[in-house]
Amino acid sequence: MRVDGEAVAASDALAAAGIEPLELVEKEGLALINGTDGMLGMLVLALHDLRMLLDTADLAAAMSVESQLGTDAVFAADLMALRPQEGQAVSAANLRAFLAGSPIVASHAGPEDGRVQDAYSLRCSPQVHGTARDTVTHAATIASRELSSVIDNPVITVDGRIQSNGNFHGAPVAAVLDFLAISVADVASVSERRTDRALDPARSHGLPPFLADEVGVDSGLMIAQYAAAGIVSELKRLAVPASVDSIPSSAMQEDHVSMGWAAARKLRRAVDGLARVLAIEILAGARALDLREPLQAGPVTGAVRDLVRSVADGPGPDRFLSPDMEAVTDLVLSGEVARTALAASDIS
Asked: Global pTM?
């Protein structure tokens, strides 16, 4: 193994760190190399990341709704109760909390606002994000069962039999890995649509084209939206299920396999892509909120905008956007955006 870039014997490195080497006992060797255990590990890691990213998605949607002069009335609890989907209710509650106290939302909440309703990508954010939340809940149920499972083959039963079985088959895990990839693509897709609206003066309700500093000269965040669109297209391809594929092996003895590792690997790529698409929406939302001055952002969205400003400058002449996108992506992936939003809201 390597310590500070230098190759050293693993025994020496463990001793230096005060770590006792692991002595494997019965069944632990198989657990380290079994494919189903690896799929499960990837699933658990993805669930951890997705819970945080879905809170981040709600925050990104709130910034878009606010900066595009959308309404928060459609997220009311009584409206959500008419369709008692649990994930939808959670996302709607987040949106209400994230938009609470916003001077921008209040500025057009009266009868003088003649718009009938916002576009789907704004108005239906809880429905899309909530579906992903429910998918995560289902996948977590499968993961919980799998964490309590015995998947040896053969297995030693409680009455002492050594019995061949099929519990090692990865179908339950592979299916939910694919299911999550679908929801990841959908959440990223609606996020990119909200970003695109912010950059289009025909739909942004008063924001400059592409959120540019000098209209007609600067490109603003046009290229950032290109990046988001490209990532979303890739996520749609990654949403194609791996678990429906199988190639026989071992002289047709292993004639149907789960392909769960392929599902796990593509989900990891998809989770990273979702974080980047959300980061671009947050970058655009922060700039759009700045461009609404003298109107001020709400306490929660304003706190996230200030966090973004700690790593990326506000509106101004065109500059190389990649460092800004990477810096905000780091804030998203670290969970700092979600933590900032939750800390600034009344969400426990």
From this structure: 0.93
Q: Note the pLDDT tens digit of each residue in 281-295.
A: 999 999 999 999 999
Which helix or strand (DSSP H or E) is residue 163 part of?
strand 162-163
Torsion of CA 123, 136, 260, 150, to 10 degrees: -170
User: Crossing angle for the helix pair 336-344 and 299-309, nearest 10 degrees?
Assistant: 150
Alpha-carbon torsion (27, 33, 39, 41), positive or negative: positive
Q: Give the DSSP letter string of 301-327.
A: HHHHHHHHHTTS--S-S----HHHHHH
Condensed to tens digits (0 to 9), the pLDDT of residues 292-311 reads 999 999 999 999 999 999 99
Q: Degrees (nearest 5) of the Cα angle 154, 176, 27?
A: 25
| Domains of the chain listed by start with CATH number | 26-106+114-247+257-344 (1.20.200.10)
- CA distances from residue 45 to 30, 48, 224 in whole angstroms, order as listed: 21, 5, 28
Q: What are 156's strand-pairing partners?
A: 162
